[in-house]
Structure of PhnA protein:
Amino acid sequence: MDDQMNCPQCNSEHAYNDGSLWNCPECGHEWNPEAAGAAGTEAAAEPGVRDANGNMLSDGDSVTVIKDLKVKGSSLVVKGGTKVKNIRLVDGADGHNIACKIDGIGAMNLKSEFVKKA
C-alpha cells in the first residue's frame, strides 16, 4: 500500500492510514483506496451535482440540510433536518451550486456537500 496518499476530497497531503481506511485530519474524510478507486472512476465519468451521500441531484428535487448552517450577513441559522423543496442547480463560482427558497429565511444558495436527497 502507498505510504503517501492525498485526500480525494480536499487533496491534503496529511492523510494517514488507520488500518484498512485512510483518514484526512483536515476535512475529516475517510476512504478505502480499493473501493474509492472503483467509485471514483464512476463518479468522474458522470459529471453532475451530488449530495453528501453521493446521490445525483437534479432540478426540482427535495433535499434535507444535514447540519446547522449560519446565514452569511445575518444572525439566522438553517437548522439541520430542514427540508428544502424544488431546488435549482446553478454554477456558482463560490462553490454554492444549489439555489432555493427556505421557509422563514427566503432565497439563498447552498453547497451540495451540506444536503442529502430527500
About this structure: The helical segments are 33-45.
